[in-house]
């Protein structure tokens, strides 16, 4: 069974704080992803990584950065949190290689920025 | 530009009846499609997938149909159960997508009433 874990289920932060969200997967997957989910907007891709130290911007990277120093760990950083970053953050991983791949998701982190 | 669209934000069905969730896409390069199910405060869980070389895939009560000429896929749940009440997301990928990137629809909230 693929297991993707996220460091926190709920977080409350103040505007301007630096926020770290961590994700760990135990299936030796090459690909890792960060999404945010907002009502009516579905899942929007923030950043993804297809290898250690590699990162690619998704559809909404502004205000975020990522780090992948080890294969199993992918961190999302909010450099200076703002209220419009209040959301549900979801991490996912998938195997590498060609063709369609199923992504496996963590339980999510609900972030509230005050 | 929404490449994957779920035009019904919600659907209500009686227990025991069929639930049909629809999804349209615009990119003819998509060749792998997935459905995910999401309960509140949890991450999405993979439900069923289909490759573009098929037009139907079945797994228990869940069947996905793909109509490539219409760029349309649907998820049928028969019979529907109250535990199926959740948000359902369709997703698509293309072979050329680096890193196994998926494009998600906005989601349809299914409510199955006893």
Description:
The complex is a heterodimer of chains A (114) and B (114). Helix content of chain A is 0%, strand content 53%. Chain A is mainly β and 114 residues long. In chain A, the strands form two sheets. In chain A, strands 2, 4, 5, 6, 9, 10 and 11 form a seven-stranded mixed β-sheet that branches. Chain A starts with a strand and ends with a strand. The model of chain A has no long low-confidence stretch (mean pLDDT 93). Chain B is mainly beta. In chain B, the strands form two sheets. In chain B, strands 2, 4, 5, 9, 10 and 11 form a six-stranded mixed β-sheet that branches. Chain B starts with a strand and ends with a strand. The interface between A and B is medium-sized, with 34 and 28 residues.
Key terms:
heterodimer, A: 114 residues, mainly beta, seven-stranded mixed β-sheet, four-stranded antiparallel β-sheet, globular, B: 114 residues, five-stranded antiparallel β-sheet, 11 strands, 0% helix, 55% strand
Rounded Rg of chain A? 13 Å
Shape designation of chain A: globular
The biggest beta sheet of chain B, please? 6 strands, mixed
Broad structural category of chain B = mainly beta
Largest sheet of chain A: 7 strands, mixed
- What is the overall silhouette of chain B? globular
First and last CA, distance of chain A: 37 Å
- What low-confidence regions of chain A span 5 or more consecutive residues with pLDDT below 50? none
Strand content of chain A: over 45%
Distance between the termini of chain B: 38 Å
Q: What amount of the residues of chain B lies in strands?
A: over 45%
Mean pLDDT of chain A: 93
Structural class assignment of chain A: mainly beta
Tell me the Rg of chain B in angstroms.
14 Å
Number of helices of chain B: 0
Unreliably modeled segments of chain B: none
Helix content of chain A: under 10%
